[in-house]
Amino acid sequence: MDRELLLKLKNGETSFHEIGKSLDVNTAIELRRALVSELTGTQFRHIHNFSFDIENVTKRNIENMIGAVQVPLGVAGPLRINGEYANGDFYIPLATTEGALVASADRGSSAVTACGGANVRIFQDEMTRAPVFRAQDIISAKKLVDWVNANFKRLKDRAEETTKFGELLSVKAFVAGRNVFLRFSYDTKDAMGMNMVTIATDAAVDLVLEANDVELVALSGNMCTDKKPAAINVIEGRGKTVSADVMLGREVISGKLKTTPERMAEVNYRKNLIGSARAGSLGFNAHAANIAAALFIACGQDAAHVVEASNAMTTMEITEEGLYCSVTLPSLPVGTIGGGTRIGTQQECLNMFGVAGAGNPPGSNAKKFAEIAAAAVLAGEISLIAALAARHLAKAHAELGR
């Protein structure tokens, strides 16, 4: 250990970031970890254990690295899916520390599969970025909106110069006084696309500024809306807008879920619909974020986008056969290339679905992953609603996840 350099770090003469420029990756990690251990009085016995490629990870995924945190990984399934991109039986990797979650998803998967599988369809696929401009007044703001509407082709050409696969689909203007928000929507193929659309929109903004007497305030004006609860994502969509459904038979509900269609329908109505409305929730579901978060962590997605994924609505209707169940996720931002999908452990989880990397045709892998995610959320919703209907929730957590 370089004690002289460690002392410089401790005294603030150099920084965690700077030592990464002069030392090899392993040495820099060890030095940072040693200082943090010394400063906090913590003995690190575990965070130094990892198997991924640190050269790639430290260039693309993390700064000031000192180690890795391990999250237990479980599997639910098989889950039968009848999608346009995902067809067959899939095993769902879920990374979580919440006991009972994987068991619940597994039970829901069993029920869905016993009834022929989940039907899944994607209705929209658009990633957004929305810069905010300051005009001189509302007259100037109207001129900007009119110019954008008349010059979409120019904006599209400028934006798409920055990307090989990205495609600008639309630009929608939203005005508040002299504040003008332009919501750019893109098809980003197999990438989740946040970096892609940010770079592309930045190029398009230059064209806006060249042709209009307005000021750019921020490249992101929160009309996107990225990583925050927002009604616009529920209404307009962001990422994949995807729905999954299944018809549960009475025998399956009785045998596997230990309850009745009537009880499940009432729980869903009074909890997910009335309860969510009374609370002012943007998500009308039981725990969509639970499944989304565990799947995101396992498969290298941006975990903060669980906020958007939780904008889900679960419906349940009694039928002659038993119970019709559906879940709709209007804003599911997922991808199979870029970001955390490059990391070895996460890539292995994506390989369980056969979607690691770019698809052929472009975009097909990300769409397949989105269909699997929606089906997994549906399985999770069915299991939790059934547990509440049968009053098994507390018992399950007492046994599996106190």
Task: Produce a short descriptive summary.
The protein has 402 residues and is an alpha+beta fold. It is built from 16 helices and ten strands.
Low-confidence stretches: none
The total count of strands amounts to 10
The overall average pLDDT, rounded, is 95
Query: How is the CATH topology of the largest domain named?
Result: 3-hydroxy-3-methylglutaryl-coenzyme A Reductase, Chain A, domain 2
The appropriate CATH architecture of the largest domain is Alpha-Beta Complex
Which overall shape is indicated by the principal axes computed on the Cα atoms?
globular
Helicity, as a percent range: 40-55%
Mind telling me the CATH superfamily name of the largest domain? 3-hydroxy-3-methylglutaryl-coenzyme A Reductase, Chain A, domain 2
How far apart, in Å, are the first and last alpha carbons? Answer: 42 Å
Count, helices: 16
What is the rounded Rg? 24 Å
